[in-house]
Specification:
The protein is an alpha/beta fold and 182 residues long. The protein has helices at residues 2-12, 30-34, 44-57, 60-63, 71-78, 82-89, 141-159; strands at residues 17-19, 26-28, 66-69, 99-106, 109-116, 127-131, 172-175. The protein has seven helices and seven strands. It starts with a helix and ends in a 7-residue tail after the last strand.
Amino acid sequence: MQRQVLCQQQQMRPPTLTYPSGRISVSITKMDYEMLSPGRWLNDNIVEFYGLWLRDRLDKSLRDHVGIWSSFVYAQICQQRWNILHRSARRTDLFNMSALLLHICTRKHCLLAIVRHSGVNQGKSGGIYVVDSKKNVAPGVEIIHSIREFLSRQYQSRFKAELDFSESHLPATVVQTPQRDT
């Protein structure tokens, strides 16, 4: 009887696809895979999987200049887990990248923030570009503020100096995209 229950539980366990192999990877379950059906919304795991897959297909020279970060990073930013973020970002030359793509998921709503800060520490211009397809929703001030605070803390930690990431030095812009109602 116990063996039969165990076999049934193993059959119910969804198959998993893990990509890539190694320290930084994401696992896709059957439920995640079903989110790819028409009329369904993508979830964090699917977007994370695609980000890692896309990063691996970039030319090495471009890969070193574009950071693709998941919504899990933004969740850490919102929780102000600065030590965890510093440890995970220390292997990345964040301030010499041309752009940082940050997937943001908040209460069943997803958007993309692109932080263009190449040369900001040398006085060159940059910006935060928010890509959102939901109608009549402006990106929250708290999202922009959180990204600015993250950049400021990372810069302080790395260079032991301060740099102005305010609106006047790193303006935020909402990018026009096709809009959807829900």
